[in-house]
Structure formats: C-alpha cells, structure tokens
Fold this sequence. Notes:
Layout: E1 2-3, E2 39-40, E3 47-48, E4 62-65, E5 68-72, E6 75-78, E7 84-89, E8 92-98, H1 101-111, E9 119-123, H2 129-132, H3 135-139, E10 146-150, H4 153-162, H5 164-174, E11 204-206, E12 209-214, E13 217-223, E14 232-236, E15 241-243, H6 266-278, E16 283-284, E17 292-293, H7 295-321, H8 326-332, H9 351-363, H10 382-389, H11 392-404, H12 408-421, H13 426-442, H14 446-464
Parallel strand pairs: 2-11, 8-9, 9-10, 10-11, 15-16
Antiparallel strand pairs: 1-3, 4-5, 5-6, 6-7, 7-8, 12-13, 13-14, 14-15, 16-17
Helix pairs in contact: 6-7, 7-9, 8-9, 10-12, 11-12, 11-13, 12-13, 13-14
Amino acid sequence: MRSLLRGRLLGRFVLVVGVACVSGCSDSANGGSEGGGPVCDPPQFEVTVDAENVIPAPDGYTDLGGGVREIHRGVYMVPGFSNTFLVTTEEGSVVIDTSISLTAAAHEQALRPYVVEPLRYIILTHAHADHVGGVALWRGDDPGVEVLAQREQVDFLHYERRFDGVFRYRNSAQFSRLLNLPPLPFNAPDAPVVNDGGQPPATILFEEFFEFRLGDLTFQVVHTPGETPDHASVWIPELRMAFPGDNYYISFPNLYTLRGTEPRKALEYIASLDEVTSWKPAVVAPSHGDPVYGEAHARDRLTAYRDAISYVHDETVRGINAGIDIFTLMQEITLPPALQSPDTNEVYGRIDWSVRGIYDGYIGWFDGNVSNVTATPPTAIYADLVEMAGGADAVAERASELSDAGDHARALHMTDVALAAEPANTIALEARAASLEALLDVAENSNMQGWLFAALREVEAKLAEQ
C-alpha cells in the first residue's frame, strides 16, 4: 500500500508514480541549484506505507556504551543537544543529522566504529546549526559521500547569513546558560549587507521527495516544512521508522523563537505531522529526545502534538477575528487538560510566544492602535512619566516594591521606565537584578532561562561598574 502525497504546501495535486528520485536528478533540473548540487524534483512521487520484508521493530533501544544506542536493527544514535543517527546496511551507511559543532566530533567518534563502509549519504533534516555542525567531519575529503537537503535550504542559509549580526548576539543570549556562551556583539553599523552569503553543505537538493535504496533498505525523504522552510522527514519503510527532525520533540514547539525567525506556519506543522503519522511508523526518532516505540503509541503522541498546535492556532485566529489584543490572547490561550502532556510542556517552546508568533505572522506588526503608526515609540514619553512621578528614584522604588511582592513582569517594565531616564540608577538596576534572578530561579523553559541569565549578567556588569 502507498501513501498518496498531496502537494498541498505548493497548492498543487501530486499524482502517484514509482520512479526513484535518485535516478532522476540532474544539474539542469529546475534550472540547476544555487549554491548546491543537482536538484531532484520528480513531478510525481509516492511514499511506501506497507513494505515487503518488514524488519520487526524493537520495544526500545539497547545501550551499547560510549554514549551509543542501537535504536533499531543496525540503526544507531548518539543523543545530545541534537541527536546524530547512523543507519547501516550491508552496502554502506547513512548519517541523519550531525549535531552542533560543540558536540559533533564526539558524536562522530562514538559512531564511527559502527559505520559499514562506505558512508554513502548524509541526510540533513534542516539547516539549523545543531544539525549541520558535523557535516565536514563525516564527509571529510570523500567525494563519494553525498549530502542531501531540501532545496529551501539555500534561501534559508542566505537568510541566516543576511542577519548574522543579530543572530550572533541573540544566539549568545538564548543559549548563554545552556551552552555557557559569552555575550557576542552585533555587527558594526556600517557593516556590509550580504544578501546571498549562505554556504549550503548539500551536494544534492530536492524539492518535495527524494528516494534511494541502499542494501535492503529504502530511504524516502519528504519535504515537511514546520520548524524551518527547508525541513524534511526521513522514512525507512522496511524498518517502519520515521525521523521527523525538529517537527516533533518533547515540548510544545517553538512556533516562534526568541532569537528571531521568519514566521513558522502552524498549518505547515500540522500538515507535516499528518504526513508522518500517515506512514504508520512503529518507531519515531526525533532529532531531540528519545525514540518513541510502538505504532499505536507513536500515532497517539504525534496526533496529540498536532492537535495541540491546531488548538493554539485556531484559538489565536478566533481571537484575531474577534478583535482581541495580542497581550490578552497571550495571557488567555492555554491548552485544555485533554491536550496537556509531557510532549506539550513548555520547556523549550512556549504557548504565549507561539500565540504572538501566529498573530504577527498572519497580520504583521500593527496592532490597530493608531498611537503606534508613527516612528515615535512609547519610550519617548518615559522621561516625562518619570518627571511626573517625582524622579527616577521614585519609579525605581516602585519597581523594588513590585519585585518584593513577586510581580516581576511589572517590576521589569517599571525598571525600563526608570532606566530610560537614568541608565545608571542603582535602585532600578538592583530591582531589575532581583526580579531577573527570581524569574530565573523558577524558569523551566530553557530559552527563557538563557535570556534571563544574559539579562542578569548585563545588569550585574553595570552594577559592578558603579
């Protein structure tokens, strides 16, 4: 039986054929590829749901020591900030994702003894740094190792290079605590703009589908946008095993990430999760976290994850159409008990951030308040408010009271007002530090921890200068 794929993400219907994509790739396909290898774009494709010669899935993984787990017959994984997978056959091996540069070498060294030579492919589920950091280590100087990615990777890496200054600064804040990163600077104001400076590691790019066979296994790679526009999921029908990349992990997803991103479309997440679920996987191996075993268990967890995203999306759209302001929606939209689970906790993504990401992604920055249509920001009146309140110390004292009362969000806003008028105000800086520290002590979300830690580090540095 085959899963009929619809090109819904491109607004077209895809018919079914049985042509292996690897045999149809050429340098001239779709006009060639910018910054990568040949483009594979079969106009029709199919995903195998019920394969012949299925190898039964295990009930769990086997710990082999040295950080290596065998998660299916001949399939190995090293967990970490981002997982690295190795799939072996009698004719060679395939690596799926390569982790971040900080851990890529350790992953490669741990998995290399299990490689069945030759290494034939490196498949990248998407171009985030924690998935491509080990490509050069695995490929080395071997021209026979193909690196496979979805074609949107080219534009995505151009986008990341275009904004390298802000991403450098924001990544160093967001991962300051998790990866022990120091503060990194923005670009200089007169730095040149590089619009097309991305360097895709891929040697083969595909549009919607890529298929190849190695040994007794078939590898089918499908464009499944969500976490990124170039996101792909891998399906091995003989193992009934799916690799959904970052479209599924044990947290509500980052529909918006604080380090900055183009809109991550909830409806694309939903469609992509539906696609992977339709393959009826017996093992789901995400790029973050442990594999999920059992067809029914995998189906239930993927479906619940999809339903949680759908609920937040629909409630946000309903609120937008009802004229409800963004901050009210961020405060009021929560998952109902039936959709709350370990998979939808908020240790990485957060629902309130996702609500704002959906809101801004659909209707943009203007919130309907005519006060916000000019270039004059609300901060322009902070000095007047401080003067009316009796000076920066008076506002800072109020911030301290709010902090002492545990109203830390309002305390931080109050310190913003005081410090706008008097940037070195000691009372305001101390109140800000106290609220940041209190919020950090209870924060469960790793991204929130990073930004709080970075902000606290900045405030403590200013206090140390006094």
